[in-house]
Automatic annotation (TrEMBL):
Positions of transmembrane segments: none
PROSITE patterns in the cross-refs: C_TYPE_LECTIN_2
Organism: Cyprideis torosa
Protein name, as recorded: Uncharacterized protein
Domain of life: Eukaryota
UniProt feature coiled coil, ranges: none
InterPro entries noted in UniProt: C-type_lectin-like (IPR001304), C-type_lectin-like/link_sf (IPR016186), C-type_lectin/matrix_domain (IPR050828), CTDL_fold (IPR016187)
Taxonomic placement: Eukaryota, Metazoa, Ecdysozoa, Arthropoda, Crustacea
SMART domains: CLECT
Length: 310
């Protein structure tokens, strides 16, 4: 009888269990958090938009109980025990902002006041109006107020989804490709380098419908950037965007669709030619984007749909 009851409880728990959708991760307390860390440094308002790009229901993280805060704090500390993940005084933004110039702060979603006893000593103290709130790792993730136009990392949160709503994983990639998200990628970083047109041909020869990688969404940009930071060996790579006859207008080569979401490196300034293509800058640029003449030679980052490779 006990065994039957145990099985029923396990099945019941499994049916009601909740999960997170990539790239969100589940905290010990069951919240869905996405910490892009070093990938983004943006204003508070931009951070809210970027969270929604990853999931339509996502926002900068909010804490409506001390348990929620303690849970996320533990999650972040498990990821980074010595705060080396964060630059000193560098975020992340969370989803609270100031009411006028009152030094009173509320959560954006429901206008409820934030936890007043979770501020860093001496905070809030900004003389400007409508500031926002960040957490500081060096102060135990307590709160600091900052002007919203500061560029800081972000921490996103989405409502958990039931397991049956989670998307099915795509088919496996062949040995030469690596699955990143829902796409298969191939990094070529040994041997000779190619100009952009030959790199495109090289990708097409690797797999059915192979092509230079086309990073059309924020999710793809984040996933591929993270993948290259771990596996790219600091090299620069061609991707599949080319200038469309006019300066600063780019399209994806396979479809002709305009490049709407970009990740240019800080300080990027387009040159005056109209036949450039886009590359991912390795090294200290951490695979942000730049444009360059298509006759130059680099390694290529290829992609292919798993369904085409199975």
């Amino acid at each position: 009888m006990f065994l039957v009851l145990l099985v029923i409880l396990i099945v019941s728990f499994s049916c009601n269990a909740k999960t997170c959708v990539n790239p969100f991760e589940e905290t010990p307390g069951g919240q869905c958090i996405f910490n892009p860390g070093r990938i983004f440094r943006v204003t508070w308002d931009e951070g809210q938009k970027i969270c929604r790009w990853f999931n339509e229901n996502a926002t900068l993280v909010e804490f409506h109980s001390y348990e929620d805060f303690a849970d996320v704090k533990q999650f972040l500390e498990n990821q980074d025990t010595d705060c080396s993940h964060w630059a000193p005084g560098a975020g992340p933004w969370i989803g609270a902002k100031e009411v006028g110039n009152t030094n009173n702060f509320t959560w954006l979603s429901n206008k409820s006041p934030i936890m007043d006893d979770n501020w860093t000593v001496g905070q809030p103290n900004s003389p400007t109006a409508e500031d926002a709130v960040m957490m500081s790792c060096e102060f135990g993730f307590r709160f600091l107020d900052k002007q919203r136009d500061n560029e800081l990392p972000i921490l996103c949160q989405m409502p958990p989804k039931k397991k049956e709503e989670a998307p099915k994983p795509p088919p496996f990639c062949p040995a030469s490709f690596t699955r990143v998200g829902n796409t298969c990628y191939y990094i070529r970083n040994t041997g000779y380098e190619n100009n952009w047109d030959n790199a495109q041909k090289s990708c097409k020869a690797l797999a059915p419908n192979g092509k230079l990688a086309e990073l059309e969404t924020v999710e793809e940009i984040y996933a591929v950037t993270d993948f290259l930071l771990k596996n790219g060996n600091g090299h620069h790579y061609w991707i599949g965007a080319e200038e469309h006859g006019r300066e600063k207008e780019y399209v994806w080569a396979s479809s002709g669709k305009p490049v709407l979401v970009t990740n240019w490196y800080n300080g990027y300034s387009p040159d005056q030619t109209t036949d450039d293509v886009i590359l991912l800058l390795g090294g200290s640029y951490k695979y942000r984007w730049n444009d360059w003449g298509r006759t130059n030679s680099l390694y290529e980052l290829c992609e292919a749909d798993p369904a085409d490779l199975s």
